[in-house]
Specification:
The chain is built from five helices and seven strands, in the order βαββαβαβαβαβ. The chain is of the alpha/beta class. It has a seven-stranded parallel β-sheet with strand order 3-2-1-4-5-6-7, sandwiched between helices. The radius of gyration is 17 Å and the shape is globular. The N and C termini lie far apart (about 50 Å). The model has no long low-confidence stretch (mean pLDDT about 85).
Length: about 170
């Protein structure tokens, strides 16, 4: 089965790192992974097993229709798509334009937005089947802005404390 991950760009950041880690993790579990993103500094970090498709999502606001069409045409070639992990508002809008009848399950990952954008983002999360929020305060803000409470889950970012532990011998 195939998992699709869509993010705006591959520049340094937590959301981008999340997409790269998830794509690698899915391939290690035997899934085929397609990653749509605009090329960036972190493009070289894409796992060799991941199919990468360069897509100009960072400037998507002006060109969502052709981007949605390209996503649709690329995914039409591939059977058995399990679902889509959308990592931005633009990617969520593009995938829902490509598949307007909700025939493809979409998970929106909410990493955070400037406060002024929360009302817009909260409403657009209704296009996703599920929403994962990295903090409880963001989850509450999105619900307050229109996200359906039965679709949003708090999944905190984690740190491997065995791998990243402070050296207590340093003064």
């Amino acid at each position: 089965q195939t998992v699709v991950i869509i993010t705006n760009q591959l520049e340094p950041g937590g959301a981008e790192r999340f997409c790269l880690d998830m794509s690698k993790s899915f391939t290690q579990r035997g899934y085929t992974v397609i990653l749509f993103a605009q090329r960036g500094v972190w493009s070289r970090r894409i796992a060799a097993e991941v199919e990468y498709i360069d897509l100009p999502l960072s400037s998507a606001r002006l060109s969502l229709i052709p981007i949605a069409w390209r996503i649709r045409m690329e995914l039409k070639k591939r059977p058995a798509i399990l679902g889509v992990l959308a990592n931005s508002m633009a990617s969520l809008l593009a995938i829902r334009m490509a598949y307007p009848f909700r025939t493809l399950p979409v998970i929106q990952v909410a990493h955070g937005w400037p406060c002024g954008r929360i009302p817009i983002v909260g409403y657009t999360t209704r296009l996703a089947n599920r929403v994962l929020s990295v903090s409880d305060s963001l989850r509450k803000a999105l619900i307050g802005a229109g996200c359906r409470p039965d679709t949003i889950y708090h999944v905190p970012n984690g740190v491997d404390c065995e791998k990243f532990k402070p050296d207590m011998s340093v003064s």
